[in-house]
């Protein structure tokens, strides 16, 4: 394989817990909630699907249905969708809804999976091109830089910058063109079978990982190295890990 494309959330990085997210926003605003209230509010935000990168909402309010479906097409739509969901939950101050959205874009809100640096470094050492293809409404490059992973990424293709979201094969095509590689010699690695699986329409191979907490997936990316090595010299047979996606955008 000449190149590997990676999804962001649930593949290379994991967002913090809903409670940690809420606590960070409260601390930044100088606000406090008693422990039981903080835990209950965090649970309510989680049920609403308000944390980008967290569990998706089981039901999207009717007034948000249209913006939710197009949320990854622009930064404005992404913010409107997620602050709209958080506003379903009473918070101590109305400004907290925007503060929560701002918090999820901070590098400190994200943790790389334990083997992410190892795998990306090994791919770089082999001369394999690396791209990140994400359905997202904001610039994730600072997250990679803060965690020291930007040095391994050759291109970022983000849905909001192109007005196209996965599984549209055109987004994967943009990545392949930017890397100068053929789709048939490119592997897409992600945790969403529908969105990331769209790469197959372009001719890419696809490998799925499980969207699990960081501590529960210490080596989920390592099979990619073997797949790339095998794929470079013999016919490709896609391989997947078991497990359903538990996360939504981005």
Automatic annotation (TrEMBL):
The keyword rRNA-binding does not apply. GO terms for molecular function: hydrolase activity. Keywords: Hydrolase. The keyword Hydrolase applies. Coiled coil: none annotated. Its EC number is 3.1.3.-. It comes from the Bacteria. It is an enzyme of class 3 (hydrolase). PANTHER family: HALOACID DEHALOGENASE-LIKE HYDROLASE (HAD) SUPERFAMILY PROTEIN, PTHR46649. NCBIfam families: HAD-SF-IA-v1 (TIGR01549). This is HAD family hydrolase. It comes from Streptomyces lienomycini. The lineage of its organism: Bacteria, Bacillati, Actinomycetota, Actinomycetes, Kitasatosporales.
